[in-house]
């Protein structure tokens, strides 16, 4: 073996000619079980089934229809509610009020944050107001709202706006602040200013935070609405889901109380999975801004 | 023949920025002229204010004193006549496909209608070799490809001056070399006016025809040199080595008489 002056092993130099590779082995398809497991809906349904089984087992063990009706009994009450049209009409009632408050809250949140990114006073207003009102439970404002707006929709919309506005505004604002400086400069470089700049650059760039805010706002609003209906739904003529639950508890139809709760949960799940997940899939995930 | 008029004039430009504690002077009374078709390089170590200088020319930073004149008119803010290619890869809006990234500023600046903007965007994407990626979102591209999109976007706007802020600094060495070749080829074809910030002496010599050397803290003009005799093939030649050494010594202020000592050390 030869050695160079500094002790390294000397070897001949080699160059290889690289012929083009023939067709690589064809891809193998996954088995049906592996493909099935890739669907989130399938996995989540399995989780729900397991939970329902546990619930049914607990109910059979307790054996008291007044305290804990089983999953099957609840399903029957739910089906009954669907058939006689009471549950859907109550749910629609709730959703109509909810949407009014939710949309108004979103509009106000965008107005506040646009003001906050463009002026220093706006920023101070937003941070002071959110610090004051965000920790305040919407239900705590309900007595005041009833005094101001009377029994009925006005009061509900007021507390709904309160529950959506601050959380959403905080999220939108922090999303605006997190937009990279380079992207801002690129936008201004195009000559964009004012509302065109906010809509063309800031809003899409902050969309992951905005969608997160919309989700939180939706959950807060839904929660607040059901709670508010439970508190004063009893004295208004036609109530939503919260009133349905309250009424049936008074009459000790515990299975219908559970059916009402299930309806609340199902609507929550549906909006979460259909509306928000779809929105995320066609925007921020497609753009690679969020996994 | 009358002397040509400079396209971009920087007159006694003093730039400052404020931190919560103090006021920092980034550049002090910097003056230079850029003529049409120049590949003008701002070269200096970090802290010489070369990026701040470029941002002032782009209109993002207001001068403390002095002024920037484009075609004899003072620059008042950012505008589509001075398009910047940044170093960072996040300069491309992630919610737009490659094609829309190039076409959008043309529409936003109200230069062209949608159809013509699309046409021109496709033309410049072809120039940077990315036609096949027109409908892809930026997050699926490599760093070098993102910079190509940014360059296509800037060229499509056909700005008076193309400003580049260390556009290849975040790329690996092989990709950087390739991008330098491509930029050279694009310039050979379109002869745009380029103002290019770099901290690499080799990149400055290879790409530029004129180099402004800036000394740091605060940035002041140390020298203005010619580099039109060098191109990508002259790297390694004796003249190239000598020019590199000269710029190095100017930047680090090695006195001429100490050079032999330094070489021996």
What does the model show?
The complex is a heterodimer of chains A (291) and B (265). By secondary structure, chain A is mainly α. Chain A has helices at 32-37, 40-62, 71-83, 86-118, 120-133, 138-149, 153-177, 181-189, 194-205, 207-232, 241-250, 254-285. Chain A is flat and about 100 Å long. The relative contact order of chain A is 0.10. Chain B is an alpha/beta fold. Chain B contains eight helices and ten strands. Chain B has helices at residues 50-58, 98-108, 114-127, 143-156, 173-190, 201-207, 238-251, 259-264, and strands at residues 8-18, 23-34, 39-43, 65-70, 73-74, 82-85, 161-165, 194-198, 210-215, 220-226. In chain B, strands 6-7-8-3-9-10 form a six-stranded mixed beta sheet, with helices on both faces. A four-stranded antiparallel beta sheet of chain B has the order 2-1-4-5, with helices on one face. Chain B is globular. Mean pLDDT of chain B is 87; it is low at 258-265. Chains A and B meet through helix 8 and helix 9 of A and strand 6 and helix 2 of B.
CATH class of the largest domain in chain B: Alpha Beta
CATH third-level topology of the largest domain in chain B: Rossmann fold
Give the low-confidence spans of chain A: none
Helix-residue proportion of chain A? over 70%
The H/E string of chain B reads EEEHEEEHHHEHEHEEHH
Query: What Rg of chain A is obtained from the alpha carbons, in whole angstroms?
Result: 28 Å
Most strands sheet of chain B: 6 strands, mixed
Structural class of chain A: mainly alpha
Biggest sheet details of chain A: none
Give the key terms.
heterodimer, A: about 290 residues, mainly alpha, MetI-like fold, 12 helices, about 0% strand, flat, B: about 260 residues, alpha/beta, Rossmann fold, 6-stranded mixed beta sheet, 4-stranded antiparallel beta sheet, 8 helices, 10 strands, about 25% strand, disordered C terminus
How does the SSE layout of this entry go?
The complex is a heterodimer of chains A (291) and B (265).
Chain A: H1 32-37, H2 40-62, H3 71-83, H4 86-118, H5 120-133, H6 138-149, H7 153-177, H8 181-189, H9 194-205, H10 207-232, H11 241-250, H12 254-285
Chain B: E1 8-18, E2 23-34, E3 39-43, H1 50-58, E4 65-70, E5 73-74, E6 82-85, H2 98-108, H3 114-127, H4 143-156, E7 161-165, H5 173-190, E8 194-198, H6 201-207, E9 210-215, E10 220-226, H7 238-251, H8 259-264
Parallel strand pairs in B: 3-8, 3-9, 6-7, 7-8
Antiparallel strand pairs in B: 1-2, 1-4, 4-5, 9-10
Helix pairs in contact in B: 2-3, 2-4, 3-4
């Amino acid at each position: 073996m030869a050695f160079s002056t500094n002790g390294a092993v000397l070897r001949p130099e080699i160059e290889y000619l690289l012929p083009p590779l023939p067709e690589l082995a064809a891809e193998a398809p996954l088995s049906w079980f592996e493909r099935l497991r890739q669907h989130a809906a399938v996995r989540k349904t399995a989780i729900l089934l397991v939970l329902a089984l546990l619930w049914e087992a607990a109910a059979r063990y307790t054996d008291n229809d007044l305290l804990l009706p089983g999953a099957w009994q609840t399903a029957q009450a739910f089906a009954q509610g669907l058939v006689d049209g009471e549950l859907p009409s109550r749910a629609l009632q709730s959703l109509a009020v909810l949407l009014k408050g939710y949309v108004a809250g979103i509009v106000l949140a965008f107005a506040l944050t646009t003001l906050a990114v463009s002026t220093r006073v706006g920023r101070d207003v937003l941070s002071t107001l959110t610090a004051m009102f965000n920790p305040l439970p919407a239900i705590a404002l309900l007595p005041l709202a009833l005094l101001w707006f009377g029994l009925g929709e006005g009061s509900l919309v007021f507390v709904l706006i309160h529950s959506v506005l601050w959380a959403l505004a905080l999220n939108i604002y922090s999303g605006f602040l997190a937009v990279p400086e380079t992207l801002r400069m690129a936008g201004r470089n195009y000559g964009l200013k004012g509302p065109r700049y906010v809509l063309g650059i800031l809003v899409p760039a902050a969309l992951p935070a905005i969608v997160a805010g919309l989700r939180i706002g939706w959950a807060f609003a839904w929660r607040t609405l059901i709670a508010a209906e439970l508190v004063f739904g009893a004295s208004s003529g036609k109530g939503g889901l919260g009133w349905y639950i309250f009424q049936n508890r008074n009459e000790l139809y515990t299975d219908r109380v559970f059916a009402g709760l299930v309806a609340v949960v199902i609507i929550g799940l549906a909006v979460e999975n259909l509306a928000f997940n779809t929105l995320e899939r066609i925007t921020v995930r497609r753009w690679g801004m969020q996994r | 023949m009358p002397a040509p008029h400079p396209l971009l004039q920087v007159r006694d430009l003093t730039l400052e920025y404020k931190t919560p504690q103090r006021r920092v002077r980034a550049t002090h009374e910097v003056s230079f002229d850029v003529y049409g078709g120049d590949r003008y390089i701002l070269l200096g170590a970090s802290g010489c204010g070369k990026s701040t200088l470029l941002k002032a020319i782009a209109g993002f930073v207001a001068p403390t004193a002095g002024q920037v004149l484009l075609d004899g008119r003072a620059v008042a803010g950012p505008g589509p006549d001075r398009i910047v290619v940044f170093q960072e890869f996040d300069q491309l809006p992630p919610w737009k496909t490659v094609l829309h990234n190039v076409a959008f500023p043309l529409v936003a600046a109200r230069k062209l209608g949608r159809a013509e903007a699309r046409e021109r965007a496709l033309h410049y994407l072809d120039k940077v070799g990315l036609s096949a990626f027109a409908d892809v979102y930026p997050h699926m591209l490599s760093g070098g490809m993102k910079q190509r999109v940014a360059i296509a976007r800037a060229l499509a706007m056909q700005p008076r001056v193309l400003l580049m802020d260390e556009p290849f600094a975040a790329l690996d060495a092989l990709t950087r070399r390739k991008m330098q070749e491509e930029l050279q080829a694009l310039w050979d074809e379109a002869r745009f006016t380029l103002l290019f910030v770099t901290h690499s002496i080799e990149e400055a010599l290879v790409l530029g025809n004129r180099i402004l050397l800036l000394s740091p803290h605060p940035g002041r003009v140390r020298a203005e040199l010619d580099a039109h005799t060098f191109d990508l093939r002259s790297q390694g030649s004796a003249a190239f080595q000598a020019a590199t050494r000269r710029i190095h010594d100017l930047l680090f202020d090695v006195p001429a008489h100490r050079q032999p000592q330094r070489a021996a050390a």
